[in-house]
Write a structure and sequence with these properties.
Largest sheet: 9 strands, antiparallel
CATH architecture: Roll
Number of strands: 9
Number of helices: 3
Mean pLDDT: 94
Order of helices and strands: EHEEEEEHHEEE
CATH class: Alpha Beta
Strand content: 25-35%
CATH superfamily: Methylpurine-DNA glycosylase (MPG)
CATH topology: 3-methyladenine DNA Glycosylase, Chain A
Structural class: mainly beta
Number of domains: 1
Length: 213
Amino acid sequence: MGNFDGMCGTSRSFFARDVLEVAPALLGCVLQRTDAEATISIRITEVEAYAGERDPGAHSYRGMTNRNKTLFGPPGHLYCYFTYGLHHAINIVVGQLGQPYGCLIRAGDVIEGARVARERREQKPRKVPLPEHGLARGPGCVAQSFGVNLTNDGDDLFAGQWRFFGSRDGVVLPHVVGPRVGVSGPGGDAAAFSWRYWLANASSVSTYKPARA
């Protein structure tokens, strides 16, 4: 069982705030999914904020599409997408209804269900086993550890398989900010969009990579 000392379940209002307020507040919180195989709990160590119509790096910058419509829905739901033809990624929808904002869960520590998370991450043969901090290091690894795919797009964190635990006192942990990973064009401007947040001493935080030219 994971360590949830000092944590409690949150209400939907936690997510019904501006994305730049919610994103750093997610650090240290725990996202949990229970399915037929296991309960997986991940302590969030790295996130990125995406602010819809005011953010050229966001999927929803140019409006609603069939792919991104979940972002326009109520807060506290998951926006799941398939990226680069390689892996899935999950965002938590935040803000107000119709405000297409999301927080990408980039990395975390698996604090419950590590055995099943490892089985999912090591489906392909590996010469060297993954270290514990590598189980959910990067957005694709987070999604794979949880065992999610596009069928989870729109999942409600307050119904069904998911739960979210935040700090009882609501204190935002000390953290570092910087440019988002792999975002090209104006949205990749490090000065204007330093919207990646991470816990400085967490070994699960992913490696920064700028966008490809």
